[in-house]
Sequence to fold (644 residues):
Amino acid sequence: MTPTTRTRWAILGLTGPAYLWLAGTIFLPLTAMLVLSFLDKSPLVPQPASFTLANYQAYFSKSFYWPLTRWSIELGLWVTLFCFLIGYPAAFALAKRVKGRWREAIFLLIVLPFWSNALVRVFSWTMVLRSNGIVDVAVQSVFPGAPTIDLLFSYPAVIIGLVHSYLPYMILTCYIALQAIDDSLIEAGRSLGANRFTTFYRVILPLSLPGIVSGAALIFVPVIGSFMEPRILGGTKGATLGMNIEEQFTVTANWPLGAALSFILLAIVLVIFGILYPVLRRQGGGA
Amino acid sequence: MSEVAVIGAVKRYGQVVALGGVDLTFADGEFFGLLGPSGSGKTTLLRAIAGFIDMDAGEIRVDGTDIARIPVHKRNIGMVFQNYALFPHLSVAENIAFGLDVRNVPKGEIRARVGESLDLVRLSGLEGRRPRQLSGGQQQRVALARALVTRPQVLLLDEPLSALDKHLRQEMQVELRRIQRQIGITTIFVTHDQEEALTLSDRVAIFNQGRVVQAGAPREVYERPVNRFAAGFLGEANFLQGKVVEVAGAAARVELASGGQILVPATGLSVGAPVLVALRPEKISIDPAPADAAVAPNRILGKVSAAIFSGSSLTYRVAAGDQTVIVFEQNKSRAPLAEGSAVVLDWPVADNVVVAP
Fold:
């Protein structure tokens, strides 16, 4: 065998299992769902199904889907924004200020919530946010006679719960990006006459943008499809498209409609990223 | 341009003294090399002048004004970093323009001055490149242009050439010197490469343990080291230990611990005083010992214990009593002396430099 054919076989042998795995776990189910979304009956029903576009038409013809979609997108934006506002400074402090064992300890605290069950985490928020809950009692004890604070089943509750769940992604991706910025670049900025703010804005921020973008993508995509947190913390308020999709599968057993809505959601995500991609690529191109 | 004076600079990190009271004056337009082993305080001093380190005590005066409490960005300095620290997300032109941009210099003037700077470092035509598309030498030039374009009062260089290979380093030394001469900026640079320091500097300072051991013109520091550390750090030196046995006029006769006698300049010496003499290996002439060789002052008999050939020169290690004397010889027409052969070493009295231990 010549070296090139050998290399080719080696590449195939090494990457093959990964591609097979991806094909099996992503491509096949997605294809199945795509086919399902064009059927007029759920596969659970014994009668034979035929192909139709009705499930997609339903989204555009029924007026209540649009508010659900808009709230899902808004929720994605709010959660991503708050994750950035809280996570970026935390990542900055970790990467540039905290050293040694303290850093490890803080990292552990950040990752710790991941070790508990997501459902348990969300339910524990209900105890914090409800009236006569932990926040309410704490405020009442400091300011007796203050109005009762009941955040449960509200938009803020959903946002708080989701920010808590997804914050570590933003911290970790930003930390990696900030960590890679050589301190001498910051010093160079300062030596050239830029104050701390200008150095941050002109040097640190653009160089850490790839971290912010990947963190935002990791958060935005699952959040706009989320259904568990909005259901438990938002109740009847703040229904999302994700909740509706889940109901199609688990409550009304209308799988084809659920599949069609899933693909519409996927399309929305792709369109948003398609619009943002050129902007982000230009901004983060240097890093 | 500007005169920089460091007065009583002190910096401690816990128990470690990084700067133990340094006084140095850098004359206007001077190219000044800070030299010393790692941890000797040379980089700390440079970073204190730049403003990255707050000193515990002392002043840094630029043209008489103390800038020790002024933040980095308000000091008018140019700095070239060891790894160049070019902004990877900006083009060559944007990198150079950075300092002007943050000072709100008008766009037209920025373009003109960036152009001038690129001419100065001979990089015209590469404005649009990203730093990672440049060679090490080119990156070095961009870093220099970026540091100079703001017309700083003082240029600080932190081991600027250490990342380059030998050939490029020599080329950049010439360039650095040309550019520095052309604009006449007071330049302070840190290096651990003694040859580089001697080649480039108008004056050098040798640091050890947070203090300046000796400062002066390269030739003066090399030829007249004040102590054992200075002599040993800058170039090679043989150290001969002995006692003064006679002072006669301008010369003192010293009985060496390892046997033999040498004559040294008598300044400040009295009979019975212990002395340490530094002797540069290239000052000694080495010849095959004739059969009737006699010992005389500044004339030692020995045996070649090692002869190392390195192209243009030879290094001999000569055993003379308990003392090993290192001798450098130019590679002239004579065949190298064989190991084990008897040799006679002699050198002028003036080359015996009495140094502090």
